[in-house]
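Q: Two folds, back to back.
A: First:
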Amino acid sequence: MRVDFIRHGLTAGNLEQRYIGSTDEPLCSQGREGLKNRVYPSCDMVFASPMKRCIETARLIYPEKEPVICGSLRECDFGDFEGRNYEELSADIRYQSWIDSGGEAAFPNGESPAAFRERCVKGFLDCIARVPRGERAAFVVHGGTIMAVMERFAVPRRSYFDWHIRNSHGYITEFDGETITVTENI
């Protein structure tokens, strides 16, 4: 089955390099413009995170399709780091502790990376189960969501952070039920 993963367009928080997970930001004007300058593959079904930035991106890319909303595909809840950037967090000892963990420690008052990844993988599989045989699916989601799914299924195997993708970009893939093979970058 062909499955495309597209990271939502830019938001104001993305431009300021903030941790934007549970904050429900819409696209900024640069984000909407950036989507107009790209060509995206066609699909039969569109799945999206319930966050404004993903729904808006899905509707701009696929105006003829109503996205199927999947709550499990939302971005990680960054807890006390939410809405802040590196500069604002650099003196916070909890942030340094999180950095020292290699990004594996739970976010203070937020979600643990392991729970987030598990949620995303389950959400992906739940959505895939809804796609009729022979149809193509597109996932318009968050960078972290894409990274979680790719880390779990993509071959050759790579770490979570190796699958980072820029806003408005993504991967065209083939999923055989067990592994994902990237055929092209968007």
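A: Second:
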Amino acid sequence: MNMPCLLAAWSACEGELQRYLRHRLARVEDADELLQEVFIKAWRQGEQFCAIDNRRAWLFRVAHNALADHLRTSRESIALPDDLAAPESEAAAAVDELSQCLPRVLAGLSPADRLAITLCDIGGAPQRQLADQLGISLAGAKSRIQRARRRLREALTKGCRVRFDDDGRVCGFTPRPPL
């Protein structure tokens, strides 16, 4: 396969690519190996490489991605002992306390809202399944789930004194004893 466009782009960029990779890697051998990978990926593009508008940018993007993959897989990791216990964090305890409030709040919702929340949000079923089960359109099921979520949020705010941040995530609550 004769590809003068690849050879021209490569001869124009090879030195820059090599400096880019060598600057970011401790071992010259690793940089040279990644440089070869970049060339091979460009070669495998075949005639499609010639259709690329900015071949230099494409080569650098491939080099950047190859570098990121290399760094990700070459990280040293230390194995933790099997008997290491996870520390009990305050956040985990708070989530456990909040989870005790959820059944009480769910029980106070209407059966339709409870079904939408438990089936789709807690159970992970697709919204299409709710639509089929209720015999309504997918758009109707989506609306029903949104309304149920809004009512659940209101019930959590009132019943458990849950507070939400600007993004809608739980940022605090006042624990109450379970039923």
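Q: And?
A: The first strand starts at residue 163 and ends at 164.
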